[in-house]
Design brief:
Elements (H helix, E strand, L loop, with lengths): L17 H4 L1 H18 L2 H7 L2 E2 L2 E2 H15 L7 H4 L4 H29 L1 H4 L1 H15 L6 H8 L4 H27 L8 H30 L1 H11 L1 H25 L1 H28 L4 H12 L3 H12 L4 H26 L10
Antiparallel strand pairs: 1-2
Helix pairs in contact: 2-13, 4-9, 4-11, 4-13, 6-8, 6-10, 6-14, 6-15, 8-16, 8-17, 9-10, 9-15, 10-11, 10-15, 11-12, 13-17, 14-15, 14-17, 15-17, 16-17
């Protein structure tokens, strides 16, 4: 792969594996297991919650690491510099993530929380929910996008470069955008969360992927690496995803049980925003004649959110019992099921990009 315009669509996996074939069923089962554990075995999430630093759950981070590794190990590191030579996708996604996404999230939140459901929620709670939604919408995904990209046979080199670019902008732009949209002045960005997330979700799996790729190709050969080793990794991502769901919903399942109607109300603008950004970027990529391995991850980076940062910021600025914190937690609850639906859409519309010339 030399550049963005010469990325070949990777071969589709030969048939669906056991986990992939019934993924929707496994997701529903794992969500249910997580909620039941949180409700009837609270000691488990309480114990896991002790292993947390800068609002980042270490157990969840480890599982995400296992999900990300299969993509990182596929990266031909010599092609990373080539990705930037054709900047169409990088420019398109950067504009979407930082000049469009935060403002559309603010609009959808205002529309639903202040206008449609304002009489039910009241102005104070509506403003809290709007704040939480803005915190979510102002930070594109850092970690899970590698999983979504992998599930759509996305180009790993492009995905890595785009995420790295977004993380660089995040450090500078997140606070000013949130301050502008929220109209607050006393605002502190939890930079420890950003730094730890970058290390855990990019640096560690990237180094592991690079070292294992070099070692295995050198000692086993490229054919064994591609035909045997990579195929063995297929189910690791799915298993890691399902275990992550169990942990997340064991932590946050009470929000579903105690505030079901509010959860649904909060989920509405977050869901609409995700689909809006996905199709905006996805159809723009088609118009620009980008190929599917670029278009799919490009569209999903903005559709998903850096929820660890949003939760950490909501807690530090508004408090752990605030409506803003609840809104960011709902972002976690809907993130994985919602993005799996979007992954399915991307996979079913692969043929839209078959005749792209770029």
């Amino acid at each position: 792969m030399n550049n963005e315009d010469e990325v070949d669509i990777q071969p589709e996996k030969e048939g669906l594996g056991f986990f992939e074939k019934y993924l929707s069923i496994w997701v529903a089962i794992c969500i249910g297991i997580g909620v039941l554990i949180g409700r009837f075995l609270p000691g488990i999430p309480e114990t896991l919650s002790r292993f947390e630093y800068a609002q980042v759950s270490i157990p969840v981070a480890i599982l995400i690491w296992f999900m990300i590794y299969p993509m990182m190990v596929q990266i031909d590191f010599g092609s990373l510099l080539e990705v930037g030579k054709k900047p169409k996708a990088l420019t398109m996604v950067t504009v979407s993530n930082w000049l469009i996404k935060p403002f559309t999230m603010a609009f959808f939140a205002w529309l639903f929380f202040r206008q449609i459901f304002g009489g039910f929620l009241g102005p104070q709670l509506a403003d809290q929910y709007i704040a939480g939604a803005i915190l979510l919408g102002s930070a594109p995904c850092t970690a899970m996008v590698f999983v979504w990209s992998y599930l759509t046979d996305g180009d790993p080199s492009y995905t890595l470069v785009q995420v790295a670019l977004d993380d660089s902008i995040l450090v500078i732009a997140y606070a000013p955008i949130v301050i502008l949209l929220l109209g607050v002045t006393d605002f502190t960005v939890p930079y420890s969360t950003i730094i730890l997330s970058v290390v855990l979700y990019i640096v560690v799996p990237l180094i592991a992927g690079y070292l294992s790729r070099v070692y295995l190709i050198k000692n086993k050969g490229i054919e064994w690496f591609e035909d045997v080793f990579l195929k063995k990794l297929d189910n690791i991502t799915i298993i890691g995803l399902l275990l992550t769901l169990i942990i997340i919903f064991s932590f946050q399942g009470d929000a579903l049980i105690n505030n079901p109607l509010h959860v649904l109300i909060i989920a509405l603008p977050i869901t609409i925003q995700a689909f809006f950004i996905f199709f905006l970027v996805y159809l723009t990529a088609k118009k620009l004649k980008l190929k599917h391995p670029i278009a799919a991850p490009a569209a999903m980076i903005g559709a998903s959110n850096f929820f660890e940062l949003a939760v950490a910021t909501a807690i530090s600025v508004f408090g752990i019992t605030s409506g803003a914190a609840l809104a960011t937690v709902v972002g976690i609850l809907v993130e994985v099921p919602l993005m799996l639906v979007i992954v399915g859409i991307a996979n079913r519309t692969r043929h839209w990009f078959e005749y792209s010339s770029a």
